[in-house]
């Protein structure tokens, strides 16, 4: 089950996930960079979660448990996620499977790293 949670509890779970996984650390922002005005959600075991900003941007989606992506993305859409940004590679095509479409692409600020892809939910 995924439930609304406080920013502090979400950030603690994200901090733990980032510390335990280089993959999660590379794909998510630092907890201190996460906006206070977003709504945050965690699974009951605090091993996965996401945030949705007031403008509908999906942020900080993470999971320490394989196989929860579908549940998390669908929950985020139900909670109002309509925009997102991610690194090029696997994620743009993954999010396309949920109806998101690329709207912009910008070079990564780190030379040689994947582009940043901005996406919007097509309804």
General description of the model:
- Strand 2 and strand 3 form a beta hairpin.
- The strands form two sheets. The chain has a four-stranded antiparallel β-sheet, sandwiched between helices. It has a three-stranded antiparallel β-sheet with strand order 5-7-6, with helices on one face.
- It folds into two domains: 81 residues, no CATH class; 41 residues, no CATH class.
- It has 123 residues and is an alpha+beta fold.
- The longest helix is centred in the first third of the chain and has 14 residues.
- It is globular.
- It has four helices and seven strands, in the order E-H-H-E-E-E-H-E-H-E-E.
Order of helices and strands: EHHEEEHEHEE
Estimate the strand proportion: 25-35%
Helix content: 25-40%
Specify the overall morphology. globular
Distance between the termini: 25 Å
Indicate the mean pLDDT.
96
The secondary structure category is: alpha+beta
Organism: Streptomyces pyxinicus
Protein name: Acetyltransferase
Please render the helix and strand layout as text:
Layout: E1 2-5, H1 7-20, H2 22-27, E2 39-43, E3 48-52, E4 58-63, H3 69-78, E5 83-87, H4 90-96, E6 100-106, E7 116-121
Antiparallel strand pairs: 1-2, 2-3, 3-4, 5-7, 6-7
Q: Which short descriptors sum up this protein?
A:
single chain, 2 domains, four-stranded antiparallel β-sheet, 123 residues, three-stranded antiparallel β-sheet, alpha+beta
Short description:
This protein has 123 residues and is of the alpha+beta class.
